[in-house]
Amino acid sequence: MGENNALNPRALTYRDASLYRFDRPHTIRSGALHYFRVHPGYWADRLARAKAMGLNTIDTYIPWNFHQQYRGEPDFSGPRDLERFIGLAADAGLDVMVRPGPYICAEWDNGGLPSWVTGIPGIRLRSSDERFTTPVAEWLSHLLPRLAPLQASAGGPIVAVQLENEYGSYGDDHEYLRWLADTFRSGGITELLYTADGPTELMLDGGSVPGVLTAATFGSQPSTAAALLRSRRADEPFLCAEFWDGWFDHWGERHHVRSAESGAQSLDDILAEGSVSIYMAHGGTNFGLRAGANFDDFQLQPTITSYDSDAPISENGAVTDKFFSFRKVLTQHAQEDFPEPPPVPPTLPEESLPITFRRELLPALRNVAPAVEFPAPQTFEEVGLDAGLMLYRAAPVVPDGKHVLEFPRLHDRAQVYSDGRLAGTVHRLGSGDGLAIEGTGDELSLEILVENLGRINYGPKLGEHKGIIDGVLIDRRLVMGWSMVPVPLDELTPDALGANGPALDMPDRSDDVPETSLRADAGATWPAGATAAGAAGVAGVAGVATAELTIDEPADTFLAFPGFGKGFVWIGDFLLGRYWHVGPQRTLYVPAPLLHAGTNRITVLELERIGERIELASDAELGPHEEYIETI
C-alpha cells in the first residue's frame, strides 16, 4: 500500500520499512504549527522560524468548528484561509502534513467538533452512527476539494493526510475508520494516509487501519515505541506523529516545561529510529473562546489562553534554548546547514494604563440578545449557543427565612445572584452543600450567570453539553419558569456590552461578600490551588471597563491585570481571550497586527472584581513552572 501508482503518484511511499520521497530516501523532520493559533499576519514569520530550526515539513490540524461554528456554509477567509497558509508553507520550502480529523483533540474546544453536531440528540460521536457520519461527509465535501489541488502529486506541498486522531484511545469502531479512509480517497486525497495513536497494543488495535501507515504519539522511550510498531507492521517506516517536547497548561495548575536537554536527547533518539513531528514546534495562542478542557480526577480542567507549550519557538515567536538544542540535533541528522531565524519581533515599552469603568455586569448582559422563555432552564445547545455565557433568570416565590439552592448538574461555573446580590459562585457539581438563599415570602429575583469554561476535547466526555443541565432546586423543589439570555462573547462587539457608554464612578461593593462561595465536584478543590474566597471573588465590582493604548507604531505586547479576578479582554473588536487570577498564566500575548498607530481601545468584561489599571509587559509571564514529561 505504500507504493506509487502511475495514475496518482504519491510524494511519500515506503518499502522494506524505508521511507521515500519521490523515490529518494527521506526522513520527515516535521513540527506542528497551527494556523488557527497564529495571527495570519505572522504566518510567514513563524514558518520561517520553523524552517530555520531545521524542519522540512509542517503539520497542522484543521478544526472543523473553526470553519463552521454554526450550520451553514463553512468559512475559509481571513484567519481561516487554510489554502493561503499551506501556500506560505510551500513558499518557505516546507512540505505539509494535514490532520483534518474530523476529531483533532489539540486541546481545542470540543476537540474540533462543532457543538451543533455534538448537540444532536442521541448522537454517538466518532462512530459509524449516521447521525455523525452524515454531517462529517457534508463537511468533508467542502474541505477535501480545497486540499486535493494542494497535494504534491498536483504540484503542491501536501505530502500526507492523517486519518482521525488518536482514535485508539477513544474507541474501536473500525467500520467508521474504513468509511473515513474511503471518504478521503473518494474526495481526491491520493497522498499518504496515516493514523496516529499511543504506542500500546490496546490503542493501536483500536486506531490502526489496514493499508494505512501506523504512526505513534509519545514523549519518551522512542525505541520501545518503534519496537512495538515494527512488531505489528514490519514493512512500515517508523514515524512519531507527535513528539511531545512540552505540554499545555490548565487554569489553576503550574506551567509545564521540559528541559532543552531532555527534549533534544529524545529527538535525537527518535531520528535514529525514523521520522518525527515535533508537537509543538510553535504553540501559539488559544484566541477568543477556543481553548478546550480535560476531565480527570472528577474535575474539569480548562486549558489556559496561551498555548506556548514550552515549544522551541515561543508564543511571540522568540527562539529559545530549546530551539537551538533541537537545531543542533536536526543539523546533525540532516547533514546540512539551515538559515538563521528572523529577528524577534519588537515589543512595546512597559506602561500602566488606567481603566475607565463603564457598566456593571448584570445590566451589561441582560439585553445583549433576545431572551428564550421555557419552563425549565435550557442548555447552551438547546438555545443554539456555542460558547460564552448564559444569563438565566427566574422569579420563584420563596418563603421567609433561609433556604438552600442546589444544582443537580452544572457545566461549568455559575455566579448566583439573589435580588441583585451575589450569593456565591459555584463550579461543576456532584454532591455537597448548596448555596444559602434568603427568602422574604415574595418573588425572589434569581439570576444565574453560567460560563462555559471550554468544551472537553479528550476522552469519553467529549461533546458534553454546557449550562444548567438538570434544573435548579430550592429546598429540593425545582424552580420553574425561566428566561435565558445567550451571551455569545465571540460574536459580540464590546460596544454591545456598553464599552462605548459614559464613564461612571465605581460603585461601592465593600459589603457585598457572599456567604457561600464554592462547592466542588465530589469533594475535590477546583481549580487546583484556588481558595473558596478566591474562586468566588472578594468584595469588588464586576462589569465592563476600558483602557486606551496610544502608540506610534504597532509592536507586540503582553497584558497583565493586577487586581482583577476573572474575565475576558478585547483589543478593539477582537476577543483576545480569558484571564484568571488563579493562574498560572499572568499575561496575555497581543500580536502587533491587532494594533494600529494611534489610540487602541482595550475592553474587559470582568466577572469578579475590576482592578485599577492594565499593565503592558515586555515579556510573557506564564507562572510558576514544573518539569513535565508526558508518557503513555
From TrEMBL:
Main enzyme class: hydrolase
Keywords: Glycosidase, Hydrolase
InterPro entries found in the cross-reference section: B-gal_1-like, BetaGal1-like_ABD1, BetaGal_gal-bd, Galactose-bd-like_sf, GH, Gly_Hdrlase_35_cat, Glyco_hydro_35_CS, Glycoside_Hdrlase_35
Reactions that this protein is recorded to catalyse: Hydrolysis of terminal non-reducing beta-D-galactose residues in beta-D-galactosides
Gene Ontology biological process terms, A to Z: carbohydrate metabolic process
Gene Ontology molecular function terms on file: beta-galactosidase activity
Family: Belongs to the glycosyl hydrolase 35 family.
Name used for this protein in its record: Beta-galactosidase
Source species: Spelaeicoccus albus
Biological classification of the source: Bacteria, Bacillati, Actinomycetota, Actinomycetes, Micrococcales
